[in-house]
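This part of the workshop introduces the protein records we will be handling. An example says more than a description, so a record of this kind follows:
>
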Amino acid sequence: MNKRVLILGASGEIGRATALKLVAKGYEVGLQYNANESAVSSLRKEIPSHQYSGDFQADLSTNEGIVTFLDTLEMEWDAVIFAGGQMWTGIFQDMHPEDMDALYNVHVKAVWMTTKHVLPYMIHQKAGSIILVSSIFGIEGASLEVAYSSVKGAQNSFVKGLAKEVAPSGIRVNAVAPGLIDTKMNAHLTKDELTALAEEIPMGRAGKAEEVSDAIDFLINGRSSYITGQIIQINGGWA
């Protein structure tokens, strides 16, 4: 039987690239998304029916949305990938509490709650993989991205702590920390701003979603069987 992988944030470019890569490797995939139903519908057409484990619409920016999602989600997943993305850009003093709550829920509480939901099955199986898509900002921090840097830093600490706790049960926990990646999340940047950022990167360009999904593919399979608790940076040398 094919291994089943749940991908949160499947409507984004990294989520989509990861889903297609894993399907090509023989995995079955389930897809969570929030508002972009058309992107998931398009992705669904590229997945053979016998490798499709359903899609799940859920707004994970609220506590109610997280609870509703988990009420409908089965527990039997061999791996979970947290690829959902939500940012808030601006001066920290201008940030409203509801914006803070949304970032916390999407990037921290939804990760905690979903992981808690799927762990019993993985522990019973004595196998499993949990992978987070973090960010360079969770390591380096960023002006005008203070709260986002904070929740991504929390993800990195979660990976390191949980990896130690569940390793005796055969479960591995890792993260990838992308730098500048060519996705819609950077659509707020002007062409000149993107060019200036690319000039700071030793490899001289933004990364591609497929390059992030390559690392996720590596972390989910047996080639990385002795790797856990790690934050793999995918940033073209930008630090």
